[in-house]
Amino acid sequence: MPSHQSLFDDYGVENGFCEVTGRNDDPDVSRLFLKRLAGRNLRTLARRQKGAEAELYNLGITFTVYSGDKTIDRILPFDIVPRPITAADFAELEAGVIQRIKALNLFLHDIYHDQNILKDGVVPADLVTGNKYFLKEMMGVDLPQGTYTHICGTDLIRDTDGKFLVLEDNCRSPSGVSYVVENRHLMMRLFPDLMEGAKVRPVSDYGQRLREKLSETAPDGVGDPRIVLMTPGIYNSAYFEHVFLAREMGVPLVEGRDMFVDENDQVYMRTVAGPEPVHVIYRRIDDAFLDPEVFREDSQLGTPGLMRALKAGKLTIANAPGTGVADDKAIYAYLPRIVRYYLDEDLKLGNVHTYICREKDDLAYVLDHLDELVVKPVGESGGYGIVVGPKASRKELDEVAEAIKDDPSNYIAQPMINLSVCPTLTSEGLSPRHVDLRPFALTGKDTWVMPGGLTRVALRRGSIIVNSSQGGGSKDTWVLG
Amino acid sequence: MIARWYLIDRDNPNSVISVLTMARENARALRHLIPTEMWRHINMLHADVANLTARKVTLVRLNEICEQVRLGCQAHFGVVDSTWYRDEAWLFHKLGCEIERADETTRLMDISNYKLMASDNALLPTKSWWNWLLRQASAYQAFRRKHQINAEPADAAAFLLFDSDFPRSVRLSVLQAFSRLDELETDYQSAPGQKLLVARTALSSRLKNRPEPLAGETLHAYLDEVQKDLIAFADAIADRYFDGG
């Protein structure tokens, strides 16, 4: 036998917690990564990675960019080294996610009913009622199970000590779960040698779980609810995911024009055999475009009358309209207080400390320490508008300072957090690259957290921006044990 | 080279790459209704042709390239047949395929017929002509099983039009389209309506009335009428099921 070099021989972590070497005391992590993966041939792995990406392209697991009359399909780059999560770490994460979602649903119910939390001065009222995602149309509307955020994708990072911290609670329409399932299927097909005997918890039943949870929140008295998935259409960059979820659930994929609401506030979808009633809509379309009777009149994507049906108790919309208030970056800062208010508990999964620029002291601190902080506009997603202080030029810092002074309420700032790293295949071998984690949680009568999640990885050395629009890729996420 | 115009020129709406691109965009829009395996196969076939550069399309490689495309198309039908859940979307897909197939056979025959009429010995179709036509339609061996060696050229035309067992014959394609319509009615309570019934009856009686002789101008005129009937039939389906519903 030739002596075999370990792929981990030259693996040096400069900063941040390593998801593999930081958990080398776990027998599964040690066996599957530090022994099994470590003994593989680098060139073979690189070739197999290319094969995996070709397979993603063939399967059309792509987001599509339309430029002029051309369509360009891009895959989310896939790194074949999985990201492990130990059973103990997952248990902690699971309990924390469930707690947050419970509090967020209670918060949403409260602000759309009695507004006790505002009256008690725990959260500033104007931050809620003046929020662009607050919908007065939802006032007094009772939802089955009190569930507003049926599908939630919590963005998590780990600090230098390996402690999970929440960056964002995505309560509106979190995307990416299709990659979680498809990445797993790809690993099982193409890397059976790495997976053999590994006790990795399954993620393949997500569609079935989603259907169950949506059924649990169907309007009262509907025994066998008809569920549909509503998409803005083929030109949406997440269209693949809409198709995927509809198929995994076994429900029709519809656009706004495929449905109508009659004068009795009942929703129907058109079929060749005539109209059929619809009871639950999982929509992947923003509030503003949902119902031209109530929101944007010029919406071509919506169905007139959906809000009437919702208010009449004949329709469930997941996630509920107006849920966006809860995942606003400004509200996020108050979450420790929100959890204490409703549940009388301490936050299990901590927040990154957040400076609220609308508060005078915080504003002064932020303007004074811009070069140390990460500044984020509230109500934006996809990594847009973020300024990373330590990496920004003088000019960029001056510009963001002006922007903050112009409209302080639109900004929050957080200290620079070092994301954890995970071994990633590069041309030089295994190298640490920064990762985050988005586990998906489904809520009906209660909450189920998928054992896994979307691990996004910043493929550029040193980068901490993991968004796919800015050079990020993804990994399979293995919850072990 | 004209092969490039037909294979890889995107300015030609009928080139293989243009047609595959359109097929792929259709498949993308209908992705929630078609099997994943079918979508995957269309992607791969499209990528094969999209990767053909002008330099690669040479006379020497022409056969290899065309064979790859042909095999890809046949494999497409195999994938469809073995993976698609037999739902209403599948019924409509089959319906479309059968009509298209009937239409393509008439066009192939018409082109061959036209070539013959334009040539010097226009009066009598020769054996080599119908031999060639049958092979174009992948029908030669099937035809041989049915007919003795002294078969007439008109028998070949009749075979392609009226045979009830050859998969690309106009009659078999049309009959199968009819039975898809029947299934739509019985399985999905989706009655065809008056206009579609009229178009169906017209097409049906056209195929029962064989013209004589089955050659030359008579054949050309007859093929023309069949094509018109097929178009009317397809239009009636579109009106009934896809417009306004």
Automatic annotation (TrEMBL), chain A:
Protein name (record): Circularly permuted type 2 ATP-grasp protein
Signal peptide: none
Transmembrane segments: none
UniProt source species: Marinicauda pacifica
InterPro entries xref list: ATP-dep_Glu-Cys_Ligase-2, CP_ATPgrasp_2, UCP005522
Coiled-coil ranges from the UniProt annotation: none
Residue ranges occupied by any Circularly permuted ATP-grasp type domain in the UniProt entry: 82-458
Pfam family, one: CP_ATPgrasp_2
